[in-house]
């Protein structure tokens, strides 16, 4: 994680079955930071509540000043989230962007495993380039 992450952003993960039919209590949510070199560092291992949500998770983010003028470092921090729940395919969401002083909500919809299947390949969601014009120092 960059040493320039001196502010805090927040992430709430909301886990349910497909099409938000049923919130999933006690789903395992694992959050990793992604460094500038692409390495992952474990930040949180938490469980969802009765509503299928995590508490707001504070995450290091760059200062707001990074987004106020050109030629500043990236105005966001990058994270990856994996969600596991027995009987469902795991889901990994990569390259989430967290901005300072903002609460981001990540909806995760889990699909049940097929009958007699114990585990499944994780479904991976990569977030496309957000189109921000930024320059790294």
Automatic annotation (TrEMBL):
InterPro entries in UniProt: Transthyretin/HIU_hydrolase_sf
Record's protein name: Carboxypeptidase regulatory-like domain-containing protein
The species this protein was found in: Candidatus Butyricicoccus avistercoris
């Amino acid at each position: 994680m960059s040493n320039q992450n001196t502010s805090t952003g927040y992430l709430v993960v909301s886990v349910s079955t497909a099409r938000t039919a049923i919130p999933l209590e006690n789903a395992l949510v694992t959050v990793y930071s992604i460094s500038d070199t692409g390495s992952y560092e474990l930040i949180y291992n938490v469980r969802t509540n009765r509503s299928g949500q995590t508490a707001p998770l504070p995450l290091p983010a760059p200062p707001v000043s990074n987004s106020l003028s050109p030629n500043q470092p990236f105005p966001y921090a990058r994270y990856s989230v994996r969600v596991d729940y027995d009987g469902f395919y795991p889901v990994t969401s990569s390259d989430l962007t967290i901005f300072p002083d903002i609460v981001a909500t990540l909806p995760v919809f889990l699909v049940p495993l097929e009958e007699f299947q114990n585990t499944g390949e994780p479904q991976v969601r990569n977030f496309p380039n957000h189109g921000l014009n930024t320059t790294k120092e």
